[in-house]
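Case study B.
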Amino acid sequence: MSTEAILERCRALLEMMPGEALTEARKTHPDIGGLAVFPLYAPFEVIHAAGLMPVGMFGAGEQVEISHADSRFQSFICSIAKSTLELFLRGDMKSFEGAVFSSICDVARNLSSLVKRNTPDLYIEYLHLPQNMDSAGSLGYTRAEFARFRDNLSARVGRPITDEAIAESTKIYNRVRSLMRDLYDHRMRHSGAIAASDVCTVIRAGTRMMPEDFIPLLEALLDQVKSTPSHPRDGVPVVIEGSFCEQPPLALIDVIEAAGCLIKDDDMVIGWRLFRQDIPSNGPAMDPLGALAEAYLKHSVYTSVRYDRAKPRTEGLMDRMKDSGADAVVFAPAKFCEPALLDYVLFRKKLDEKGVPHLKIEFEEKMWTFEASRTELETFAESMLFD
Amino acid sequence: MKYAAGIDVGSTQSKAVLIDLARAVVARTLIDTGANVKRAGQRALDNLLKESGIPREQVGFVIGTGYGRYKIEAGDDQVTEISCHARGAQMLFPATRTVIDMGGQDTKAIKVGPDGDVVDFSMNDKCAAGTGRFLAGAADVLGLTLDEIGEISLTGTKPIRLTSVCTVFVESDILSHLAQKQKVEDILAGVHQAIASRTISLVRRVGREEEVTFTGGVARNIGMVRALEEKLDVSVNVSPDSQFTGAIGAALYAMDRVLAGDAEAAAVSDEDTVWVDE
Amino acid sequence: MRTTVAEDKDYRGKVHQLSRDIMTDWMTELKDATKSPTPSAYMMISGNCVEILRCFDILPVFPEVNALQLAIRKQSLPYIIKSEEIGYASDNCAYVKADVGYTMCGGVGENGNIPVPDFIVCNFVGCNVYIKWFEHCASMFDVPMIMLDIPFVREDGPSTDDVKYVMTQLKELIAHCEKLTGKKFDIDRLREVLGYSARAERGWSRCKELCKRKPTPFDAYFDSINMMGPINALRGSKVAADFFDQVVEQYEGMVSDGMGVLEDERFRIVFEGPPPYPYYRNFRNLFEAWGAVAVQSTYSTVGGTWEFGFTHDPERPLESIAEQMIIHNLCNRSMIERYAQIQSYVDEYDADALVIHSIKSCRLFSAGQGDMREYFTKDRGVPTLMVESDLEDPRYYAEAQMKNRIDAFFEALTYKRIRGKATA
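Model:
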């Protein structure tokens, strides 16, 4: 399959409503059920082991006109919360078993209540992911929370979710994550090999496919991209920070690169790329849930929705810049995103201390013109190129 | 006492209506509010009496409403424009159960009971987004009058999508669409659609129940009427008296008092209310 | 029903004065601590474990109370603007902005009114902003932040794993306090402190219960603020326990004399959401003008839902602290539970309406209140009014619009009553 064909397939998936993506998956996995996952993270392995397809809910901004949800949420609430609620209120999620939310922010938590109240037939789960990474009780708690999720999910689907199944799913998702790391790595080393918006397209599409289908797609893409010669592009190497939940429109990502930046790394769809290394799935005392819990606590990338005393996010950002060879940071938080906007203050303080240039451009999922941002980005890039 | 009057002092225009014991409208008047809001109510009342030829002594009770309601000195009492629009709309169209009032600076959706009482309401009064002011801004930019933009919007075939309904940006939004060679009628269609969408969400908060009556100054805009009908999927009542709905409602409340024997002017001005801060 | 109140201002004033006295004493302690080596720690109000600090004689400091005081004295805006200058967004919680701005302007430290804390205890109870707020403080002061991760209530109650996790963290906090103060943890001292907590909590609960009477002896929203400081910040001290004994006496006295806080109580309401502190009295007057008084409020229970029967138990010190932090407060419970709380208030306190004050700063309270409004008006038939402003930032309060909505609402309720009487 050519790169363009792969990208076409991915774009088609992104244009679908979540229910349509589930129907599409049933072509290769008949009768598979689905569980929607509101960003950022849920133990995908457990969902998969339950015989369900985890489907990332990243809002429906461009596709859906918000006509019900805006009477429930105020105007200063992020768009993803409204468009997600809209999908549930319209009945678009009927074909799913339900959805899982987590403690990413106050809005997400209230959203889960609103969804639950308004869709009583669906299984709506709320995970309290740990915010204390280094208590003696952290691992036990995290494992217990994953176990609670497994038990509730099992009751919903009416079949047990065995350790063996979770271990198998872990292997599969390890492979997915490893391939995604390869893709990011390749982009970082070879500017011009693949457009940042194409990487995003693929990664986002991956949240709407069974991992068994995503793996060959990624493998084919990597094959193509690695074997196709490309001209290196010029530009200011940057990392994007703040796009961990509501996703920037692909057109905006193009604008960032067209304005003269090279995106070396980013935190888009970070919940599905949370682990730096494979999660052990076999071994003498196989405890796949414990392994997931340990990975979440100790081997995951920093995000704005998690407190880690031992590794502050500002350090994480500096490391990310160093590892990817970036010279600057473009903050791209969604409008009204509370965690991103609060973190911006500390990030900015650190970057100013270190003399690292940075720019903030806010977006909304349903934006489709970016004139103001383009001007700012061009000015920003120029100021660094002619330093 | 054979009459009752209602005064509706708006941010730009003040309306006054005179009704008789049978609750029929016998006179109506419209003036510019001007800078002196306190005086506007009195001026509207004076105008009304002059036009109708009815002496002040025959007007048993006067109720003031609208933007300047508790600055009005001319009324004997005040009632909110929400209550007045509900009552007024129900008189104009007795089967009214939902009122959409779009004025110069705010938009309201009101759920009305069979007697014209307010069951529930929802307002957009925090900013001018999606209100008459937005339309006025759009008209300005395009060099058209408010009366023209509605008609023209109906001929648009490909309504444009606005990036925001923020009145601050309406000018630059429209200019950039014009620069992209979009047709004026398509731009206007898009503007009307966007405002209608925002209004519909207000309506949803109170629940859309037929019949729906559209009141306020913007109800004269046929483009807005059609856009609302399309989004609500129901036909919308519009009276030639739509601008006077608030004043009519106020007059009806005033007539209640006349009939109940409240002939004295119980003057309640805002000086009586002492608001002491901590 | 007309009540005869000779000088209601006096009664309202009495409890207010008692509260001011003990809160002022605490403020004085804080100010003294700016220049002394007294150990102090930051803590959040919701579901807090102030008792643990008290049993080590560590002075508790609550930045939320500081922010509240700034707002009610109309001093918050310059500090908010200061924070916005260094990058805080207009949409960020104004409590944070006011507190951070205040800190940047020297309000904390030797020349200020609040001591620099020796460490920061972040009791993460519901509010995610708490975590970031305290991270920012820890960065400004360069002091350690201790995270107390309190699992949100996701099933019917806390699980044994939830309680175990919290208790482990409490023990880790205790170890930290030992290191800081050089004192050994004394469980009997903690029991004593919890005894004072329990006495205060019973007092609170009794006062809230008195609001079921007609007329209500105090406004459970606007007057609750007099009790919230003592119960949330001063809890565990003898002074707070004694305060509640006196307050109960006051209100019980009023009730037995048939006295209400309002001379003419016409509408009994349940209030949801924090108040607009910069316009506190103004906002209250808009309701008093209609004879409307709050008989219950959700905001008063942010720190603890004492009126539902829970009190700290000296016989189970750490367990009862853990339970309180997890489930016996508003913030750690879902919107759905809040709806149930409101409904029980409407039923048990015979309320006529629900008023939702939706504030821009606080998404925990506000995000989705449109759904709450829909639920109560459509599903439960409770007349509901929603008004909007902010709890800390005065720029979001528009008096004319506020009065308009409030008047329209009570006009409608009044006409409904009149019509109801006419057809009766």
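Residues 308 and 387 of chain C are 28 Å apart (CA to CA). The remaining cases will be described in the next quarterly update.
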